[in-house]
Write a structure and sequence with these properties.
With about 110 residues, this protein is an alpha+beta fold. It is built from one helix and five strands. Helices cover about 35% and strands about 35% of the residues. The chain is elongated, with a radius of gyration of 21 Å.
């Protein structure tokens, strides 16, 4: 009976280690992607106004913003860190995007702006 308990405990520990390790790898990749995105935007930034089409503030901060660059429409879907102006859907907001890749953008509510 004790061997079964040890085997079960060992299996549980291995499963937990694999799960936690995969979460760590995902977080590292996500942070690396964000750093690369911010570096590209800050190389040659383009500042423009966008329109908030969706704004959600409970259970996670999410926002959708439509903006145009040289007649081409883009949509930014992301999060936000602070909202001191109390912006909501329908308001205009400043966007900073890359001149070379306008689909890479951040909004004024994010810390990286």
């Amino acid at each position: 009976m004790k061997k079964d308990t040890r085997k079960t405990l060992l299996t549980l520990i291995v499963i937990m280690a694999v799960f936690i390790g995969s979460l760590e790898l995902y977080d590292i990749k996500r942070n690396k992607d964000k750093v690369i995105k911010l570096a590209e935007i800050h190389k040659a930034p383009l500042y423009l106004k966008g329109l908030i089409t969706y704004f959600h503030s409970s259970k996670g901060h999410s926002i959708s913003i439509k903006y145009n660059v040289h007649g081409i429409s883009y949509e930014y879907n992301g999060g936000w860190d602070r909202n001191v102006q109390q912006l909501k859907a329908g308001d205009s907001i400043w966007i900073k995007c890359s001149v070379k890749q306008p689909e890479l953008a951040i909004c004024e509510l994010e810390d990286g702006y």
